[in-house]
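ingest -> fold -> write
write: protein_1
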Amino acid sequence: MSAPSPLFFDSHMHTPLCKHAEGHPIEYMRQGVENGLAGIIMTCHSPMPNRFSHRVRMTPEQLNEYFAIVQEAADEAPEGFEVRLGMESDFFPGMEDWLSELHSKADFDYILGSVHWHIPEYLDTFWRGDPDAFRRQYFDHLAESAESGLFDSLAHPDLIKNASPDDWDVEKLRPVIEAALDRIAQTGVAMELNTSGINKAYPEMNPGPKMLKMIAERDIPIVLGSDSHTPRRVGDGFLRALDAVEKAGFESVSVFRKRRRSDYPIPLVRESLSTALAE
């Protein structure tokens, strides 16, 4: 019996333009082909105005360069493999108009929204020395980002657990998380299971299993992303991620094209993935 055709995408990866990733999009594409994916979505960190968080993102002047290198990878891809254009854009109160204009500058396939609590501008504005208050603020911003209408999906939605991993307690925060998820569920915005979380200060995927189950209970769609900052991580942990979402109660995982969502049954995705992804 022949192997199943590639079906699924890795929906989160970066380029050297963000100043903390390595590898041309062509290298990410080749790794995706090797790992039995149907395609990848490049989602490098968005430019922001006035040197906001400038150390970890492209400049506004590099936007066309970003479009060009993603197109180079698309042109080099073998027949049947897609390289789609995305962007990981930071949600920060007051930046909505900037992002709305940015997202109109290309025919994007996917816009991934992030609340990056650790950037200096976020800490300077919202950190007041109280970890619990900081976490509550983060989850309020996560919900607000969905309500903004700017994003297709929300990246690494419990990233805040890395702010103070020693006293991270999902049960203590359950009412806060559930309130945020109730708001997100009303928007139709998807959320991401980010496999890179296992390499962070709190070593589990983002979100962890308890929050993932809360997401499933609200029928919020789920997207898988490796958050690759180096080509070798494309598709990393996807078989384990499929097990996690299935255990949480999901029946499908999602991919975006031209900012429209398609859902794929988990058993078909699992079957389609190359044995090279086996852990």
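write: protein_2
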Amino acid sequence: MLIKTKFFGDVDIADDKIITLANGLLGFDEFKKYVILFDSEKSSGESISWFQSADEQTLALPVINPLLVKSDYNPMVDDDILAPLGETGEDGYFVLVTMRITPDPKEVSCNLKAPIIINPKTLLGRQIIVENEDYPIRYNIYDVVQKLKEKGGE
């Protein structure tokens, strides 16, 4: 499938890489199909990626694996919320959190309160609001990102 994007040009994505969010993202419920785009030269999964809409070329959100920024991240989620995503394999769900990029790098944050949960087996996903009261919408990650950059040699 050829996806037109504002930031990455035309990207050819295999149909088996398209993630479907039946409810869309919070605030973008009309867009249901997404792909994860990342720097192909640094595809270790230990960096910031982009959650790109296949339906709207201007919708691309920076995302990161929450375990990279908060190693004890363990959101409380009701099983009924995840049931529509289908049975998972032995690896379970894949979780991403959206990022807020600001002009001041020291204010970069991620949203631990509303993760995107994806079943890698069915490629069905859902953005949810977790019950954990200690997970903020704006979790500052500047120091963590700096350490990731140093580790990656940037």
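write: annotation protein_2
Residues 2-152 form a domain with the BH3618-like fold (CATH 2.30.290.10).
The first strand starts at residue 2 and ends at 5.
pipeline exit 0
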